Q: What sequence folds into this?
């Protein structure tokens, strides 16, 4: 079924404009790709293999972005690499820290597209919320990113670059001895005790509409010789791109979160319009079939609490019924709606959210209410970008129409 409007994934370029200095950015590339590039640039097969392994280690294990600092490379190899390659990070346009420790960055790609990233520290973990696209093709009515047009998919380098930048900002690269040829001891090299422990693909964009780049980026993030994050600590959130869900489980293998937000066709069609294409039943069937989901690794259902829209006792009971009917190993994440200028919804009253949560809890399903974080810095989807950019005429018209309607 074809839906009118710009709801389908649109063809967007995968790669950014080449750099002016013609050097190739290694950020986000797999070890095998680095090896190929080194071979193409003239290293023999054996050297290409060895050097790609070393460079990969420096980039992702040590956080080094300067070839000159790669002390196990010969003095002639370092400038040779530097003339041909670069290890880049996204440009930081704005960095903010909230009173509660939440950090938010507005980032810019080499071709001047802005996107966001948020870090949320908790007592037992630190979660980095990263973007997969600039804007989004979907138009969820409560989501600020939904009011922006999709500009383009982020490349693997721009996705992995977010994690690298967060590690830089949090000062989480191993300190001490940088010479791999010498033995490392506990005193000189400490990789544990880090703040950044978890990653969620819940920033701007629909990750399953940028499948290949998200998959390749997560492979680099999970690579045991690099950042080495476990798939159990990464969560991909989708609005419900049903045909890509099984493939995501098989090829990416991370935890799944689903933006359900409503339990009836009418309401979900309205607030999460992809529902017109892939309905609730289909979506829940795909959840039941998601590879790797079990009681130890449950699927998270995200449910944004919108006053008088999706927050009745009846809605809560229907949510329980659906989860049980499909036999889903599930937990529910109740998200207080974060208002933005021009939004047509209000957040449900705290009492309402509590009552909603209790119905689900009483049925034996975990349903915590997500504590709003970083409100003083507008750390919700799409807000920093909008504050920083002048809206296009079309965007302003749309916001005004929505505010009026
Ligand atoms: N496109 C994907 C991932 C990005 S959105 C998806 O839709 O799942 C990440 C989460 O933020 C989604 O659950 C989304 O519904 C939620 N969200 C978006 N705008 C919000 C707002 N204003 N208040 C609260 N949650 C919001
Ligand atoms: Fe896109 Fe997710 Fe926002 Fe919907 S909620 S518009 S899918 S980013």
A:
């Amino acid at each position: 079924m074809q839906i009118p409007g710009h709801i389908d994934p649109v063809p967007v370029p995968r790669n950014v404009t080449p750099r002016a200095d013609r050097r190739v950015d290694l950020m986000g590339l797999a070890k095998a790709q680095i090896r190929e590039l080194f071979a193409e640039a003239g290293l023999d097969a054996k050297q290409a293999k060895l050097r790609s392994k070393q460079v990969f280690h420096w980039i992702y294990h040590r956080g080094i972005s300067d070839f000159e600092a790669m002390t196990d490379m010969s003095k002639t190899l370092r400038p040779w690499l530097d003339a041909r390659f670069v290890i880049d990070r996204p440009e930081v346009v704005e960095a903010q820290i909230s009173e509660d420790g939440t950090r938010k960055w507005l980032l810019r790609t080499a071709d001047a597209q802005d996107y966001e990233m948020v870090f949320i520290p908790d007592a037992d973990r630190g979660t980095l919320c990263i973007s997969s696209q600039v804007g989004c093709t979907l138009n969820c009515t409560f989501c600020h990113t939904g009011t922006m047009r999709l500009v383009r998919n982020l490349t693997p380098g721009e996705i992995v670059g977010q994690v690298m930048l967060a590690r830089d900002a949090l000062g989480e690269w191993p300190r001490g001895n940088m010479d791999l040829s010498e033995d490392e001891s506990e005193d000189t090299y400490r990789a544990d005790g880090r703040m950044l422990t978890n990653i969620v693909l819940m920033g701007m964009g629909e990750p399953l509409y940028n499948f290949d780049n998200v998959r390749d980026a997560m492979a680099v993030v999970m690579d045991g010789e690099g950042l080495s994050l476990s798939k159990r600590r990464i969560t991909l959130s989708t609005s419900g791109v049903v045909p890509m869900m099984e493939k995501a489980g098989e090829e990416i293998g991370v935890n799944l979160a689903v933006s359900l937000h409503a339990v009836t066709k009418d309401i979900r069609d309205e607030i999460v319009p992809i529902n017109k294409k892939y309905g609730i039943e289909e979506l829940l069937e795909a959840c039941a079939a998601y590879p790797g989901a079990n009681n130890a690794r449950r699927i998270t259902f995200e449910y944004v609490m919108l006053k008088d829209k999706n927050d009745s006792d009846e809605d809560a009971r229907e949510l329980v019924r659906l989860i049980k009917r499909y036999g889903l190993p599930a937990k529910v994440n109740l998200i207080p709606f974060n208002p933005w200028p021009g939004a047509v919804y209000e957040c449900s009253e705290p009492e309402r959210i509590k009552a909603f949560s209790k119905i689900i809890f009483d049925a034996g399903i975990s349903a915590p209410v997500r504590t709003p974080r970083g409100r003083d810095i507008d750390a919700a989807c799409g807000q920093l970008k909008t504050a920083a950019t002048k809206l296009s005429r079309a965007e302003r018209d749309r916001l005004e129409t929505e505010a009026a309607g």
Remarks:
- Residues 1-7, 176-191, 387-394 have pLDDT under 50 and may be disordered.
- Residues 28 and 157 are 4 Å apart (CA to CA).
- The chain has two domains: 24-86, 91-404.
- Residues 45-62 form the longest helix (18 residues).
